[in-house]
Amino acid sequence: MMDKPTILIIGAGFTGCALAYDLTLRGFSVTVVDRGEICSGTSGRTHGLLHSGSRYCVNDPEAAVECIEENTILRRIARQCIEFNNGLFLAISEEELAYKETFKAGAEKCGIPIRWMDKKDILSREPAINPQVLGGFEVPDGSFDPLRLALAFAGSARNRGAIFLPFHQVESIHIDGRSSVDFIILTDRHTGRSIEQHADMVINATGAWAGKIAEMAGVNVPVIPSPGVMVAFEKRMSNYVVNRLSLPGDGDIIIPQRRMSVIGTTSFEVNDADYIPVDQGMVKEMVDRAIEMIPAIARVKIRASYMSARPLIQTGTNARSLSRTFKVFDHETDHGLKGFITITGGKATTCRVMAEKTADLVCEKFAWRKTCQTKDFELDSYRTFYNRQA
Amino acid sequence: MKGSPSPRNFLQWFDPRGRSAGSWGFMLNRITGLGLVLYLAMHMIVLFQLTRGAEAYDSFIQLMKNPIFIIGELLVIAAGIMHGINGIRIGLTSFGIAVRYQLTMLIIAGIISAGGILFFAIHMLGGA
Amino acid sequence: MTTTWKITLRILRQKQGETKTSWQDFSLDIDPDETVLDAVERVWAFQDRSLTFRHACHHSTCGACGMRVNNIEKLTCITPIRSVTHNNGMLRIEPLRNFPIVSDLVVDVSHFFQELEIMQAPAVSSNSTANLDYEEVFPDVAEKERLIDCIECGLCVSACPVALTDEAYVGPAALSGLHQALAANALSANLALADNHSGVWRCHSAFECSAVCPSNVEPGYRIMDLRKKLMRKNFHQWFGGKEAGK
Ligand SMILES: Cc1cc2nc3c(=O)[nH]c(=O)nc-3n(C[C@H](O)[C@H](O)[C@H](O)COP(=O)(O)OP(=O)(O)OC[C@H]3O[C@@H](n4cnc5c(N)ncnc54)[C@H](O)[C@@H]3O)c2cc1C
Ligand code: SF4
Ligand code: FES
């Protein structure tokens, strides 16, 4: 058998952490670097909605199926940091009520278990909901703690030998004479020192920053950061995740988390995702929408408003779709550059399957016959990420 | 390692910047506690003097009439009152009693102590 | 509509492996409704890329962003600049105390997390057990689950005078974790972990933990409640009565 191939993953968000776990289980020797703390990019700053797929069941059934499958798996392997209290899709207007059958058909086709609840039933369980509600569906949504979910994957990887180097920034990527990625130069930001790191393969998992990292390797990954704003309120207004019974739009979701309620979100485009100031106008619009669902939220104090950016992949690019919901750029077939892969897109909810599909591709490249095992066991406690390495 | 706990940090116990009322209780209890221990030691030494006869005792009592010592005595009493009354508060909370009202109790302890100290001050200094 | 303040951030800087520390000033024009974490992140983004600090969620759920702001422990992502200074004011930003410092504002939380893990502090619990025992929980929602209050930010440990001097002290967060584990499952929690001279008996009642905790945990209350439970248990053991629960 050949030596363990060495893989270097850039980016320790959900994607990088889940991928590190999958590849480590398959016997690769994995190192993950990030310029900041784990989850300091987009991953930390999410709503924390564990999708059931219901939001996509009408207009994007493929994404919906992926979500419900992963939702079910995470219930098994990542119970430790997820609130499973289900979600509601509320019909408040007649128009929304009319959407009922379309939604029901969509959910059934995608295999999402739903249940219609009448007004009385909803209000008795969630008294804060707008009393004008006409009815709604109960769906298997949940909410997660972002950092802890990523740490659970990262800790499980680390306990099996993966190395994590947070606060290590990638400065440049170097290609050898045979158009293969040779090494990268990192700055250890704790000491300010420069480090040369070699690997058989480098995987760019930097989400909204994927274009910038790809540029260092001289290849083009056409992503534009597309931020959204989220607002956290001081009080937990519901136990269910609350949605509108319509196609997904801005400000149409309220997610309970700890003692808070988080509302989201919007979407626009920026050039640089390093610092995105919060747009107060958007905050106001979203709060107004949230009040339609839970009127009392108008009197609750805002605890935090924050932003993060998704990677918007420009249309007309020939990225290889391992799934419709995220993109893998295989730079060997695209640009003749060996040992370099970019994965971007997706959701926190689907990070495990993104990792699975990407690891399949990595195995194919190394003719490494190992299958995915991440569905099989529960993740180690997220706190073990901080165990001192033996 | 830099930043880690160390016994050498104890001076920071008495740095009140940024600390809440609870820390004042903590600091005063440390200071009064040390003061009382010091006093007890002195007291023992003084008692030991008695073994040297009546004359020594008389001159000692004379010395004690000096206002400086009266103020010193008052400080000892003040320390005793503060330490004792705050001690009751800490004792209660340690039994899990009224923990949520520890701040109120600290304020009450402060008021009672101030009253007590004032009483002794008037009594001792006024009579002099 | 938005106002702009001019403020100075005075940040304590240090590199890993060097003993030298120094204060560095950064001046900033900023909307006072932005948070201290926003200000620190702005310094990193626009002025000095070498600055290191921890952050993830920006909405008080991950616990990574604790710092000392003008000598007080703050969860910086929910601390508006308006609440800690004034126009033309200055903010002194330091790493948390009582943790080994790695670099700049980054502290090493590994020992802290291990203590919490030993206590088997749950991360998710039912509403009825996640709340403090004196809080009212409506029966309808009591059995729904939620992430517990402690976000493992370490502010309480930084504020604790006993943790300043005693490395062995288990600390307010871990003891609260044990209290929470006990609430969630009285049978599996191990009270003995608190019943020793580095556990609940080491606390000296400064109640700083409860004063700085940004997340409703009330560690001071929980430590005292553990004492009560331990006394009850030990009393029954010593005097031969039946053990009244754990
Ligand atoms: C507003 C918003 C809300 C969302 N809400 C949800 C939700 O509720 N539920 C859900 O399932 N999904 C949600 N998502 C999607 C989800 O957050 C993302 O899919 C996920 O976080 C992407 O993770 P990632 O690891 O690919 O990227 P990131 O988390 O952004 O990770 C990229 C990492 O690369 C690092 N990096 C960048 N440059 C360098 C460099 N030069 N050197 C080293 N490292 C570098 C960054 O520091 C960063 O940590 C949301 C997305 C947005 C934008
Ligand atoms: S008890 Fe409060 S201050 Fe201490 S770690 Fe938990 S959340 Fe932070
Ligand atoms: S950044 Fe997560 S708690 Fe502040």
From TrEMBL, chain C:
It is an enzyme of class 1 (oxidoreductase). Keywords: 2Fe-2S, 3Fe-4S, 4Fe-4S, Iron, Iron-sulfur, Metal-binding, Oxidoreductase, Tricarboxylic acid cycle. Its cofactor is [2Fe-2S] cluster; [4Fe-4S] cluster; [3Fe-4S] cluster. It catalyses: a menaquinone + succinate = a menaquinol + fumarate. Pathway: Carbohydrate metabolism; tricarboxylic acid cycle. InterPro entries: 2Fe-2S_ferredoxin-like_sf (IPR036010), 2Fe-2S_ferredoxin-type (IPR001041), 4Fe4S_Fe-S-bd (IPR017896), 4Fe4S_Fe_S_CS (IPR017900), Beta-grasp_dom_sf (IPR012675), Helical_ferredxn (IPR009051), SDH/FRD_Iron-Sulfur (IPR050573), Succ_DH/fum_Rdtase_Fe-S (IPR004489). One of its GO terms (biological process) is tricarboxylic acid cycle. Residues 137-169 form the 4Fe-4S ferredoxin-type domain. The keyword RNA-binding does not apply. GO terms for molecular function: 2 iron, 2 sulfur cluster binding; 3 iron, 4 sulfur cluster binding; 4 iron, 4 sulfur cluster binding; electron transfer activity; metal ion binding; succinate dehydrogenase (quinone) activity. Its EC number is 1.3.5.1. Residues 5-99 form the 2Fe-2S ferredoxin-type domain. Pfam families: Fer2_3, Fer4_8. Binds 1 [2Fe-2S] cluster. SUPFAM superfamilies: 2Fe-2S ferredoxin-like, alpha-helical ferredoxin. Belongs to the succinate dehydrogenase/fumarate reductase iron-sulfur protein family. This is Fumarate reductase iron-sulfur subunit. The lineage of its organism: Bacteria, Bacillati, Chloroflexota, Anaerolineae, Anaerolineales.
